[in-house]
């Protein structure tokens, strides 16, 4: 944890401001004060939207936007360890995982710079119909307007990067509201953007009451797009409240993975053990439901459970910790209740199921019925279920049997089986022979069903953040 608690200001219109009120950031591991951040309210939110609108009145050419993005990627490289330690302190994410996140944020900025330089429209084949003969037509992409961005606690650096880097690539100014528990990574990015030469107003970071800041972003007509990553109820409500805006939602999942008997079962077990419990399962694509073909079930558990037991639970700031705390005690106690509900309904606790000091041990449940919370809701904790199935039809039906559809996986040696699963799994992404927690930052990433309505990844996000304008020329 950091030695002394820092005081951080808000970043609005290129200035670092105080408001006289503070939000405390406390360590999810031991409750110690990590920092105090100036608290914004509706007035600061309105000032931020004004600043963003003013900034956009003086557009930045694409090459300048790209240069700033590349510079930020470089600064993130230089300050990688500091960024990882900030993530670790405010989110309780083990340093190992925090370092991976900090490196990924560099990729997000790098790929966004590529998009800034190459963003272009299309030429329309006008003589394809009689009506178009004698005309030339093409589209150009214009920035959609001010972007309101709301981000969650679990990837406080890289998911903020996934909002602000594509927005700048697209030529949009941003008003960002990071999660109140984890504002420090976002403020670090604001510092790096300013150092990289971003003019005032293009990025504004507000920390404070979500509903108050959210209301301003919803109400102000100059905010043309809301990009939200977080929980379903908050996200869908936001969309309902802003029918005239583009509202892009990246929401939760109850990530399933199928392990066929022809797969390399030991390799699958090792990968899945790491990816069910990294950051205590608090990733939207943390492995939650493992379906193993019956013939391989015993062999899978024999390989999987020792890998789970070998995970080191402890202080996230220790270099060798694999599993740290949940974001707060309420969430830890909620997961404990879900475990108890499953146990009472006949599920078998194959590992964990209890606290180790204040921390919840990695928990594996066997024989969990499909209608239990652990099987159909998003656990967002260090827990997974392992169930046997007989046919691929049954496995696909089980995997599809929740309201979520973000990412799923299958391990198999058969190309035919893999492609069938890819076709029939109702998810935004299907990962073959790798944990479904895999994400590289240039991929299109997003869900169907209750998991969302958009794709992030700079190439996709910049398209969302721009409007196509058609130009028709009579020749
Ligand atoms: P959350 O509670 O929904 O919070 C997300 C953000 O929304 C925070 O900044 C929060 O602010 C803000 N917020 C809360 N109420 C609001 C309101 N009424 N108006 C406007 N903003 C509001 O989610 P979380 O617990 O931080 O994150 C966990 C969830 O995110 C999980 O469901 C996870 O699956 C999902 N997630 C999805 C993806 C993806 O890419 N699909 C990635 C990561 C996480 P405060 O912090 O101030 O309350």
- The global form is globular
List segments where confidence is low: pLDDT < 50 over at least 5 consecutive residues: none
Estimated structural class = alpha/beta
Kindly estimate the percentage of residues that lie in beta strands according to DSSP: 15-25%
What is the terminal separation in angstroms?
Answer: 67 Å
Distinct small molecules = NADP nicotinamide-adenine-dinucleotide phosphate
- The radius of gyration over CA amounts to 23 Å
Largest sheet: 7 strands, mixed
Number of strand segments = 22
Percentage of residues in helical conformation = 25-40%
Q: Based on the structure, what is the oligomeric state of the protein chains?
A: single chain
Number of helices: 15
Mean pLDDT: 97
Structure in words:
It is built from 15 helices and 22 strands. With 475 residues, it is α/β, with parallel strands linked by helices. Bound molecules: NADP nicotinamide-adenine-dinucleotide phosphate. The site of NADP nicotinamide-adenine-dinucleotide phosphate has 28 residues, from helix 7 and helix 8.
Gist of the model:
It is built from 15 helices and 22 strands. The chain has helices at residues 42-56, 62-78, 80-91, 95-118, 158-170, 184-195, 210-219, 232-241, 265-277, 294-309, 329-344, 373-376, 392-399, 415-424, 458-464, and strands at residues 6-8, 10-12, 15-17, 22-26, 33-38, 123-124, 135-143, 146-150, 174-177, 203-205, 223-229, 246-250, 256-259, 289-293, 348-351, 355-356, 359-360, 363-366, 383-389, 407-411, 429-432, 466-474. Strands 15-18-19-14-13-20-21 form a seven-stranded mixed beta sheet, with helices on both faces. A five-stranded parallel beta sheet has the order 10-9-8-11-12, sandwiched between helices.
């Amino acid at each position: 944890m950091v030695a002394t608690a820092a005081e951080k200001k808000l970043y609005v219109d290129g200035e670092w401001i105080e408001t006289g009120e503070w939000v405390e950031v406390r360590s999810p591991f031991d409750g110690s004060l990590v920092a105090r951040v100036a608290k914004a309210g509706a007035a600061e939110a309105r000032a931020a939207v004004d600043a963003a609108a003013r900034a956009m009145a003086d557009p930045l050419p694409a090459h300048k936007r790209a240069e700033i993005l590349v510079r930020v990627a470089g600064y993130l490289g230089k300050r990688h360890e500091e960024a990882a330690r900030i993530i670790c302190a405010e989110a309780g994410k083990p340093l190992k995982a925090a370092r991976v996140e900090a490196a990924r944020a560099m990729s997000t900025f790098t790929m966004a710079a590529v998009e800034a330089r190459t963003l272009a429209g299309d030429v329309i084949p006008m003589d394809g119909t009689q009506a178009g003969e004698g005309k030339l037509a093409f589209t150009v992409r214009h920035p959609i307007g001010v972007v309101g961005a709301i981000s969650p606690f679990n990837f406080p650096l890289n998911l903020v990067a996934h909002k602000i880097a594509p927005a700048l690539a697209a030529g949009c100014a941003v008003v960002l509201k990071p999660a109140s528990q984890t504002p420090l990574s976002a403020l670090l990015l604001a510092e790096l953007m300013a150092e990289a030469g971003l003019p005032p107003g293009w990025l504004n970071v507000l920390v404070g009451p979500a509903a108050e800041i959210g209301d301003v972003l919803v109400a102000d007509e100059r905010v043309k797009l809301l990009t939200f990553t977080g929980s379903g109820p908050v996200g869908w409500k936001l969309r309902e409240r802003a029918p005239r805006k583009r509202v892009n939602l990246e929401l939760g999942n109850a990530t399933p993975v199928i392990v066929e008997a022809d797969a390399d079962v030991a390799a699958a077990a090792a990968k899945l053990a790491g990816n069910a419990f990294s950051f205590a399962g608090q990733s939207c694509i943390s492995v939650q439901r493992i379906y193993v073909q019956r013939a391989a079930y015993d062999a899978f558990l024999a390989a999987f459970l020792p890998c789970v037991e070998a995970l080191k639970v402890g202080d996230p700031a220790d270099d060798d910790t694999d599993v740290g705390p949940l974001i707060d005690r309420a969430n830890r106690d909620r997961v404990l209740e879900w475990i108890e509900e499953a146990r009472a309904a006949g599920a078998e606790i194959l590992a964990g199921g209890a606290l180790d000091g204040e921390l919840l041990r990695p928990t594996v449940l066997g024989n969990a019925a499909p209608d239990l919370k652990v099987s159909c809701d998003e656990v967002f904790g260090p827990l997974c279920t392992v169930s046997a199935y007989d046919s691929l039809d049954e496995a696909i039906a089980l995997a599809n049997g929740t309201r979520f559809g973000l990412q799923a996986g299958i391990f198999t040696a058969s190309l035919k089986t893999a492609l069938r699963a890819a076709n029939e799994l109702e998810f935004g992404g299907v990962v073959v022979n790798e944990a479904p927690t895999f994400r590289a930052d240039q991929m299109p990433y997003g869900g169907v069903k209750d998991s969302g309505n958009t794709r992030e990844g700079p190439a996709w996000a910049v398209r969302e953040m721009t409007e196509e304008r058609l130009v028709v020329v009579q020749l």
